[in-house]
Amino acid sequence: MFGAIAPGRQLHLADMQTASQADFAFHALAAVLPESDAPPEWITIFAKRGRVDTRDGRSFDVDPELLVSRFNADGVDLPVDVNHATHHAALTGSRADAIGWIRELRVDGGALQGRVEWLDEGKALLAARKYRFVSPDFFHTPERRPTWLRSVALVTAPALGNQKALAAASSQENMMDKLASALGVTAGANEAAMLTALEAGFVEKKVHDETLAQLAATSKELSDIKAAGRKAQVDALLEDAVKGKKIVPAEREHYARLCATDAGLETVKALLSAKTPVLSGSGLDDKKPPEGGGVPTGAQLAAEARGLVSAGKAPDFMSAMAALEAKYQATA
Question: What is the pLDDT of residues 263-277, one digit of tens each?
């Protein structure tokens, strides 16, 4: 599939250009591993300095000396994993075993290379030719300048399917940018800064649940207070309407239902404000009923009026009420 590389020989850009599928290896930002029985001591991480293009149209401005300097300053070996397991584990909390460790970085002819101490699993995967490429996982600035390496992965087909070229670098950067925005930290911030911001705003589940319960209880209490206040307004409004002869007692319940919402209450207020009294004063309001209860209550009067209309003895309810009030006023 690829041109053979002599055992022990380091892979350079020139080697990639002589391979039958060198364009694929280069534009995927993944270097093909040497074809030899022994695992390579040095692997190429970035094949050249400066602009490096990916198959999906992105590009990165690689400064290998900057990456070496950051690696030396950190003093932490870089894990070599399979299919960017370290990256995925950082998102899911799952296990990610290293199959080798990069103990040293160097710049050779503009290419960034890493010296790998292979573990047994890594040696076995390479010996079986199950993985032919390496792909770095790194952080970069918004200008797409790599700033530090997190890991290097053995991959089979970089830039294919859901795993684009440098899938970990691309999806990680998108995820990290979104996380930075959500946490209110500067874009491009490292994991330590994001962890600090996350811990500062962390709320225990118990406290969160208690707060939600208190909020629900408070909302209900406010709703009950509001409902009670509206009922008091409705009662006062309709009591004044009955006394002002704008509605009859039998209509009170109907108007109360219309006032079930704030909008309904305002509508009824406007309606009653524009309404003129429908009944003349009977003069019975301030009179005491005679002994024996000769004057009916308002509800009884309304019921009797409806009976007169039903029996055809009055043309409508209002006429019936007027006739009954005149009748009981005369007998009072």
Answer: 888 888 888 888 777
Reduce the DSSP state of residue 67 to 3 states and report it: helix
- Residue 29 burial (C-beta neighbours within 10 Å; 0-12, 13-18, 19+): buried
Rounded to an integer, what distance in angstroms lies between the CA atom of residue 324 and that of residue 318? 10
Please answer whether residues 142 and 188 qualify as being in contact, where contact means their C-beta atoms are separated by less than 8 angstroms: yes
Tell me which DSSP letter residue 163 carries: B
Three-state secondary structure call for residue 48: coil
Q: Which two tokens stand for residue 38?
A: 């022994």
191-200 and 167-183 helices, crossing angle to 10° = 30
Other beta carbons within 10 Å of 202: 9
- The pTM of the full predicted model, rounded to 2 decimals, is 0.41
Burial classification of residue 223, based on how many CB atoms lie within 10 Å of its CB (0-12 exposed, 13-18 middle, 19 or more buried): exposed
* Cα Rg of the chain, angstroms: 43
d(CA 278, CA 241): 11
Model pLDDT for residues 209-234, shown as the tens digit of each residue: 888 888 888 888 888 787 788 888 88
Count Cα atoms within 13 angstroms, Cβ side, for 52. Answer: 29
Evaluate whether 37 touches 18 at the Cβ level (below 8 Å). no
